[in-house]
Design goal:
Layout: E1 7-8, E2 13-15, H1 28-43, E3 53-61, E4 71-78, E5 88-91, E6 95-101, E7 108-114, E8 122-127, E9 133-140, E10 150-158, E11 168-171, E12 174-177, E13 183-189, E14 193-199, E15 203-204, E16 206-211, E17 219-221, E18 224-228, E19 230-238, E20 252-260, E21 264-266, H2 275-284, E22 286-291, E23 294-299, E24 305-310, H3 315-318, E25 339-344, E26 352-362
Parallel strand pairs: 1-9, 3-9, 10-17, 10-18
Antiparallel strand pairs: 2-8, 3-6, 4-5, 4-7, 7-8, 10-13, 11-12, 11-14, 14-16, 15-18, 19-20, 19-26, 21-22, 22-23, 24-25, 25-26
Length: 365
Amino acid sequence: MQLDKKLICLAAVIIGLSLCAGCTNVDQPVGRQLDSVIEWELNEGGKKPKGNSVLVALYLDTEDSKDTTTIAEYRCYNYGNGGYSGIKRVPFGTPWTRWEQVRSNRFKKKIVIDPGPPYKKAKIIVTLIPGEVANLGRIVLEKVEAEGTASIVGAIRDENGKPLGNITVSSNKGVMTTYPEGYYRIDGLGLEVCDLNVTKEGYIPSSAKVSIRNMDKRIIRQNFVLSAQKKIRLRYVISPLEKDDFNSPEAVDGTVKFIVDKNFMPLVAEQTKDKDFSRFIDNVHLKFRVNNGKLTLHNFYAPIFYKRHRSSFEEFETISSVGTLNYNSQHCPPIQEGDIILINGGKISDYTLKILFEEVQQILP
């Protein structure tokens, strides 16, 4: 592929941009910088991925030379069905590129660039054609102006709905503790991202980011559910490499114990003696996650596929393979004692795994 091939000059629907995307109406210095980076990606140092891929190029900017915003989040969605290719960080004031994989029936995309308040999101509808380049040019983000301040209020409860008083809530505005009824309030917030962190001894910490993008709502509600730390004992059987067969003589079983005391808790490979199970954990970054008071199984890399059984302990022995799991089974399953989780490593790992959660118990504060 050479740079003189046709660039995609986008007939795009753009929301929140002050300039059209594409190669037209771009400041010449910025245009030359983008051309140089594109040429390098295509012909010199770039590593083009296999399959149908499109190089997306852009240059983020603001009209305010004194602005301190440095990073925005980039997402590329399949138009119409909501799936996206991951979150990437885009720096301001420099050319940026990304290779996007395109399926034969999903050329139309929605690119969303979110710098956070006080700027609007930029939304671009574009058709990505394999073999061509999508040069979005210089994207100037629009700043929102608003008067007054907002407040964040909320309630903090345990897994059973009981209010939790004397909870530490830290934010951009400092540290406070909840009222006996479990309520808190933070005042004096402008157009900003407020980082909230909630902690109490014996409980798994919780956090949230509240983006205040305008002053249409002066009172913003953010509730929390705190979960007590968990003691977990699980039994597993892992298949031989590239063999979905738990009855094979090469399949390995074992038992592992964990204490979950964080929102994201990695399954530490060093705690297991089996090298295949350790390799699987490392490959997919398998974790426990606590979300809204619920314990789930989670992985950093997608897609791997899960299936959950809520049945008798005896069924675990009868499951001989995972089989084919559908696309929707990527969602991280909630866990309770007695659950059986089947995992197919998909494109990330050639192992399959079955897990029995023999014990999931609260460690009471």
